[in-house]
Design goal:
The protein contains three helices and three strands. With about 110 residues, the chain is of the alpha+beta class. Strands 1-3-2 form a three-stranded antiparallel sheet, covered by helices on one side.
């Protein structure tokens, strides 16, 4: 690791490991990502730019993605029961127009 690396320490009680991995995955085309630490107390993310890109920009991108995936995960957990109920209803019906409408609604919710 060089001086160009970004090291971010994250409290896993605020951002779960799966959220950290998702945020890190977004940067894999621009940087090498290394995760280390204890998933119960602190996770260290080391970001090594591939093209000597501005470290501040990568740090900001990573932090934005942490927040994005955290909100997405929270929203998904809150709406899980509703989605499951809709899917069960779709599977019990033969109405193709209803099925198409439900699929479109689920896609729209995922984009939010």
């Amino acid at each position: 690791m060089t001086d160009e690396n970004i090291i971010i320490k994250i409290n896993p009680k605020i951002y779960s490991l799966d959220v950290i991995k998702a945020a890190a995955h977004i940067l894999t085309t621009e940087a090498e990502i290394h995760l280390n630490g204890d998933p119960e107390s602190e996770i260290e993310v080391t970001i090594s730019p591939k093209n000597k890109e501005d470290n501040k920009e990568l740090r900001e991108k990573f932090n934005e993605q942490l927040l994005n995936y955290s909100v997405y995960k929270s929203h998904s957990e809150k709406t899980k029961d509703i989605r499951n109920a809709i899917i069960q209803r779709v599977l019990l019906t033969n109405d193709s127009e209803f099925i198409d409408a439900v699929i479109e609604e689920l896609r729209a919710q995922d984009k939010k």
